[in-house]
Give the backbone structure.
Amino acid sequence: MPNALFVAGGWEGHEPRQCADLFAALLREDGFEATVAETLDVFLDAEALATYDLIVPMWTMGEITKEQEAGLLAAVLAGAGLGGWHGGMADAFRANPNYQYAVGGQWVAHPGDIIDYEVEITAPDHPIVAGLGRFAMHSEQYYMHADPGNEVLATTTFGGQFHPWIEGTVMPVVWTRRYGAGRVFYCSLGHHRSDFDVPEAREVVRRGLRWASRGAEESRSREGAGDGAALGAER
């Protein structure tokens, strides 16, 4: 049985515990064991970290010690999956470029704050997004600094109504990458827990976490493709 570790904390505005509890419950439905911790000190126990197939940091901003960061990155380099969403993963530990290198990007802006925008699927054959079509969000639209080596699965396009100089910019929303032996999944959606009431947003993260898990088989991620096709047909 795969084993996932959620680490929830940091700025409370992103509702870290509520979001972690949501996806921990969904992974349990998918046959995972899931633990939710509320301290970065879990990254200091190399022996315990080695038992996890997936690590999900939900820790906006904050600070991580060199020892905590080293423990986390060593676990991923050794094969643990790293997965997460929005600021809990890509607006964490702003002073730690080694962490950002593993994640594959960093949040930098959300012009207009809460707005309406669309997410476009750009890799429809990938198991994380298979069967999903374009979908709408009413939330913050995130401008990212993203690694060009990422495999981008979904994007959003910025208008110029708030910052004219970014009009037409196509920005990654969902990506995957490798970090050592570990799979990395990231989705920029999820400012609040309620953003995951959008079925596509919730399904992308659910599948992405499963995909990133150590030893995950492509077939396991494809099991949800039928649900995704139905979601796409509804919208």
User: Anything to note?
Assistant: Confidence is low (pLDDT under 50) at residues 218-226. The first helix runs from residue 16 to 29. The domain at 3-234 is CATH 3.40.50.880 (Rossmann fold).
